[in-house]
Design goal:
With 465 residues, the protein is an alpha/beta fold. The chain contains 14 helices and 18 strands. It is globular, with a radius of gyration of 23 Å. The structure holds zinc ion (ZN). Zinc ion (ZN) binds next to loops.
Length: 465
């Protein structure tokens, strides 16, 4: 990595750890318990003195992860400038502290596995989100003379929707329209009329938009598709590109990766470039999926905040597995030296024991496998996978996998399609799924319903660990 980036990160890390030590309930307790002081965490490698934080800890007490400045220790973390401003004008100083620290909203994930966990945002966070998204929009729309954007992320306390919305509010060089994820037919009409050339949305929703565009024989002007909020399997990306290019240019599909907890998503600069991190916001690392020891390649993704307020983390275990590595060489696409997360990101879940506590063992089922298989069967227009207990009142009953299949209009031999799905799933996962045929639009409604684009759902009860 370019030394300047690393130096900047370590400078921010030191300040941030100090802030957490004094004002973050969870990490203060943790550091005290481990007899660590801010002086012990000065370099990126020093972060390893801290254990990983998992979703379990967060779920148990989300409030303990919110930065809450303590009056009695405030002096220890204020800069000279802040102290001066407090002396000069107390009211103004208080306002500024409120702006920085008081949560004003929360974002939550769509809850693949039960209750969503909130990440609280302060106005400081929203401002950071805005400024960084603006820079990303500029990068993405490079080469488009008159960008016209359409935001199709679901209108909800959902990071992706607010990411795009905040980034656009003060953005000068783009005309934009925001619909949320709904009113498919109207969105498609508007896209043609306003010659929309940049769209952003959840993979499932964008796929549907592209299907309708083909059905209605609309002309497409789309040149950039930004996907986020859910992973996009190869087959789905291909279908989206094919659909849009049926009657228009072939768009570039740019993917984002983010979690509610990371509070900011990271993005590719070009299709397939790898995700450029925001080096001044997060430090990313990989750990072995069994030992949790740091690894260079192929590991679980872990991040630490070095900026942001509200809900923040050090060494948060995402539960996503990267088959690849964090690349520090100059990007061949955009020339930037900002590190990239390169490779394939997979969500993993433990089929037998669930993702209970921090251990990930038992039969590892890669949820993306379902997506990969089903998105590439051309006769399927929509699908949904539900993992559940055979008897929902009995947590010890068998896990079953149900797949709802929505065939394309032209498919006549449904039995054969069912057989194909069964065989393919069985051969990759050793699980025989139950297949149910449903209309594609009904499946689409379910997928985009309360769960907002989640195609693979784990409905088994979580046991507290
Ligand atoms: Zn790049």
């Amino acid at each position: 990595m370019i030394k300047a980036i690393r130096r900047m990160q370590e400078r921010k890390l030191r300040g941030f750890v100090k802030l957490l030590y004094h004002h973050h309930p969870y990490y203060r307790r943790l550091m005290k318990k481990l007899k660590l002081t801010p002086r012990d965490i000065r370099k990126v490698d020093d972060l390893r003195k801290l254990p990983l934080t998992t979703k379990m800890e967060l779920r148990e007490n989300p409030k303990a992860f919110v930065l809450q400045p303590q009056r009695k220790r405030l002096k220890k973390t204020l800069s000279l400038k802040q102290k001066l401003s407090a002396l000069l004008n107390m009211e103004k100083f208080k306002e500024k502290m409120k702006w920085e620290y008081a949560p004003v909203t929360f974002f939550a994930s769509s809850g693949r596995t039960g209750m969503p966990t909130p990440a609280f945002m302060t106005r400081y966070d929203l401002e950071l989100l805005k400024v960084n998204t603006m820079a990303a929009i500029k990068r993405i729309t490079k080469g488009i003379k008159r960008p016209v954007g359409q935001n199709m992320f679901p209108f909800a306390p959902h990071l992706a929707f607010w990411h795009v919305t905040l980034g656009l509010l003060d953005y000068q060089d783009m005309f934009w329209i925001a619909f949320g994820a709904g009113r498919t037919e109207l969105q498609v009409d508007v896209m043609e009329k306003f010659k929309v050339n940049v769209i952003a949305g959840m993979p499932t929703f964008v796929k549907r938009i592209s299907d309708v565009m083909v059905e209605k024989e609309k002309r497409s002007y789309v040149r950039r598709v930004v996907l986020g909020g859910e992973s996009a399997p190869k087959g789905l990306v291909k279908a989206i590109k094919d659909n849009f290019s049926e009657n228009g240019p072939e768009p570039q599909v740019i993917q984002g990766y983010g979690l509610t907890e990371s509070k900011m998503a990271i993005l590719e600069c070009r299709e397939g470039s790898g995700y450029h991190i925001f080096p001044h916001i997060h430090i990313w690392e990989l750990v072995d999926k069994n030992t949790f020891e740091p690894v260079e390649e192929d590991g679980l993704i872990v991040f630490s905040h070095i900026d942001m307020r509200g809900t923040v983390f050090l060494r948060y275990l995402t539960g996503d597995f990267l088959k690849g590595r964090i690349v520090e060489e100059r990007c061949p696409y955009c020339g930037s030296t900002v590190p990239r997360i390169e490779g394939k990101i997979k969500r993993i879940v433990d089929m037998e024991k669930n993702l209970k506590s921090t251990k990930v063992k038992g039969t590892l089922i890669d949820l993306d496998v379902f997506d990969e298989i089903l998105s590439e069967i051309e006769d399927i227009e929509q699908y949904q996978v539900i993992i559940k207990k055979e008897n929902k009142y009995d947590p010890y009953s068998r896990d079953v996998v149900e797949i709802y299949v929505g065939p394309k209009k032209h498919v006549i031999n449904i039995d054969e399609l069912v057989r194909t799905v069964k065989e393919k799933v069985k051969s990759y996962t050793e699980i025989t799924p139950r297949i149910k045929i449903k209309s594609p639009s009904q499946i689409f409604e379910e997928v985009m319903g309360p769960l907002k684009g989640v195609r693979v759902i784990d409905k088994r009860e979580k046991t507290k660990g």
